[in-house]
Amino acid sequence: MSDSFVPQVIPNIQHVALRTTDLPRLVRFYHETLGLPITRTRGPEDDPDAVWLPGVQLVKVSGDLEPSGTLDHLAIGIENVQDLCTRLDAAGVKVDRPLTEIVGSDGKPFAFAAFYYDPDGNRVEVFKHL
User: Fold this and answer.
1) Which residues, in sequence order, are CB contacts of 3 under 8 Å at separation 6+?
2) pLDDT one-digit tens code per residue, 81-92
3) What pLDDT shows up at residue 73?
4) Strands 56-60 and 16-20
5) Average pLDDT score over residue span 3-30
6) Strands of 109-117's sheet in order across
7) Average predicted confidence (pLDDT) for the chain
8) Positive or negative, the Cα torsion across 110, 12, 99, 71?
9) What is the number of alpha carbons within 13 Å of residue 27 lying toward its C-beta?
């Protein structure tokens, strides 16, 4: 392998895919509660098997979910993060860590971040760089 190779990342198609047995429930959370727009779907309009939103793909599976790896959290950059946290709190979304100023090793703040849980128990980080 060559050390000179640098991948040319296309920012607008990066995402985390989450498997779920209840796709409508996760769509409601990510689309209605978080407010992320649906960018595309796959399958019948009234019963899709996959839904894409910025940074997130939701995939319907049948039967029991079997672990296929580990996921600590997914992160979504949100310009109006404080307003979103207020919205999530008002909706009763379970919080793991409330909105906090993040300070770097140099002692200077560089972001605000909060962690919530989606209906399937995945941690979702919402953050804004300063």
Assistant:
1) none
2) 999 999 999 999
3) 86
4) parallel
5) 82
6) 74-77, 123-129, 109-117, 95-103
7) 87
8) negative
9) 17
The alpha-helical segments, DSSP class H, found in 60-107 are 81-90
Q: Is residue 55 part of a domain?
A: yes
Q: Amino acid letter at 61?
A: V
Query: 49: domain CATH number?
Result: 3.10.180.10
DSSP element (H, E) containing 25: helix 23-27
Positive or negative torsion for Cα 40, 44, 50, 51: positive
The residue assigned the tokens 């060559």 is 2
- 33-48 per-position pLDDT tens digit: 999 999 989 988 899 9
**What does the block give as tokens for 11?**
């920012």
Print the domain residue range for 100. 11-62+73-129
Give the Cα separation of 75 and 46 in Å (integer).
28
The verdict on residue 94 lying in a domain is yes
Integer-rounded Cα radius of gyration of the chain: 17
Domains identified in the chain, total number = 1
Side-chain half-sphere exposure of 81, counting CA atoms within 13 A: 22
